[in-house]
Amino acid sequence: MKRARRTKIVATLGPASDTPEMIAKLFHAGADVFRLNMSHLAREKLPEKVEVIRTIEREAKRPIAILVDLQGPKLRLGTFAEGSAQIEQGATFVLDSDPTLGDVNRVYLPHPEILAAVEPGHAVIIDDGKLRLQVTEVSEGRAVTRVDVGGRISNRKGVSLPHTVLPVPAMTDKDRADLEAGLAAGADWIAVSFVQRPEDIAEVKAIAAGRALIMAKIEKPQALTRLDEIIEVSDGIMVARGDLGVEMPLEQVPGVQKRITRGARRLGKPVVVATQMLESMITAPVPTRAEVSDVATAVYEGADAVMLSAESAAGAYPVEAILMMSRIAEQVERDALYWTILTAQRSEPEATDSDAIAAATHQIVEALNLRAVMAWTSSGSTVQRLARSRPNASIIALTPKRETARRLAMVWGTHPIVTKDASDVDDMAFRAAKFAIREEFAAVGDQVIVVAGVPFGSPGATNMVRIAHVTRDHAAQV
After folding, report:
1. Residue-range domains of the chain with CATH
2. Active site residues
């Protein structure tokens, strides 16, 4: 199944997409990656969902990536004697370690790490930004705040701390159990929520031990101070704009999105732009013009993937949302300005074999106006370097490893195929040309560029570029 676009689509599964029939419809509509959100999915149901996706994969004969998204540490208030309280702007409100039910003056904060870390001047944001407090005084087990934005404050509402670096890991006990369940079920990508520092990702990678690739969700301002380090240690990046927009001024989020996207592309790491992309399609069959522009902006910027959250998980029009997102990406990629922007942002190749091969491949594609790059790969790393330069050609990844093919379903412009490894150079070129015809990326008389490593089957050994002519002999083998 050949997609008519290079930008990938991530679809979140949920109540609106809970059946095998609906998941299959989402895949055929254009979903390349399915996200399983552990904030809402019961751990015991994870293997069942994975098996449904794998069944669709076998029937379609196309690798599908599964992204397991860990919940991360959820910070919440305690409870109130009357369930809620109305706090007014300018009033004093106390957060403390006393488990007594709260009132209009104070409430229990069951997170001693927050009370130990906040300082005067730090903001405390409640209920996704509906209320805003500023710390004025701190003592042991107690933080006095001034109410800057008042309103009704109620039981167990979420707490965000844009100025406070918390001395807690990004993974809770629940996350550890969910991580092990995801790895056991065969997840291809693991997303880590509320990352603050590169050590948060290193911890998850140590547990995963190569069984899945690790994606850092950038949703806290603290992560931006060490962004390059986080991107370096991660296998991929997600721009989680929802929480970013709560913890920092909304007008800063578009610039941060561009900074993260370009930083990830510079280091050759897949980047996903997420949250509220087609939000109105939760209840409406068409998006707003502003939402269409938002998705298009992410595609113009060269994101590897764009993501649907509630639109596909809980909305009334999940299939329509996928189709709309796919049409937007296709239209952008037909625009000459798209390629002008990508070319202007292209990074200089690093002094490595894989980057030298990628740069040479890109030049050949442009010089000969080729439609397809046939890349033999074991680990997928060379394909990611090829995708980093955003060639105006499809990248067909030929790999003997199914897990590599699935992981590459997240990567821009990549069409993964599972096949046995090449036996020699002639076999490499012949079967590459055959697959180019079979998958409709080339026709008899075309040329394709073939990238591989000799000796075959050696990860990271890509060292050869060859131009192959597609002939009737290749077509006869399809």
Report:
1. 8-72+171-339 (3.20.20.60), 84-160 (2.40.33.10), 353-476 (3.40.1380.20)
2. 35, 76, 217, 275
